[in-house]
Specification:
The protein has helices at residues 41-44, 48-58, 64-72, 88-98, 106-116, 123-127, 131-144, 152-171, 177-195, and strands at residues 12-19, 26-32. With 226 residues, it is mainly α. The chain has 2 domains: 1-45, no CATH class; 47-220, no CATH class. It has a two-stranded antiparallel ribbon with strand order 1-2. Strand 1 (12-19) and strand 2 form a beta hairpin. The two termini are 29 Å apart. The chain binds zinc ion (2 copies). One zinc ion (ZN) binds at residues 20, 22-23, 25, 40, 42-43. One zinc ion binds at residues 20, 22-23, 25, 40, 42-43.
Length: 226
Amino acid sequence: MFKCVICKSELIEYSGIATCTFCGAKEEADYICPNGHYQCEDCRLATQSEIIERVCLNTKSKNPVDIVNLIMKHASFNAYGAEHHELAAPAILSALKNLGYVNLTAARIKGAMKRGSNIPYGSCGSTGACGASISAGIAISMFTKSNYLKDRERSLTIKTVSKALMKLTDLGGPRCCKFSTYAGIESAWNVLINDLGLNLEPLNIVCDFQDELPDCKKEKCPYYKK
Ligand SMILES: [Zn+2]
Ligand SMILES: [Zn+2]
């Protein structure tokens, strides 16, 4: 039997129109999750980059953690991998778009992903800079229109990445791309609230993948909650 990628329930036969949980498209469905989750044909076949783009372009969510949790449940996403280096930036910017703080086109989403796409797998251990932390910095860079000639914008971009990296330092290894994604988003959110004065709800991050991950640090991880 097929299982729902989102909640793992067994799919049930269905005839009618269903709405894709990933992209919001409506199509004729044969099977649906008893909890209402549905994956459209295009999302089912999407690559890692395509599913990030499809979700970020269409989501109505104002919470970047909910956005990354949905994307990370897609079948193309591995427990760990360089796909996480393209993830935090477009998710943060999409949430900011839905909160009315930015305009976000498909091209801007692609740009946010592209900036993170050259960071190789394992860069946390091989260079000291985690790709998911950098992706959070990319969101602040794009939000503030930072570049290497800017003053405060550049500092806030670097601050986002360095605060995220400190969270990784404090937790210790081995890798956890889910933790790094959450830590990066939390760091960016803190900069948006405390340094840039945005009126945002604080994030209450609980890992959606706890115990499923081979290297889960369980009680040692601040996002692990029973
Ligand atoms: Zn489901
Ligand atoms: Zn879809």
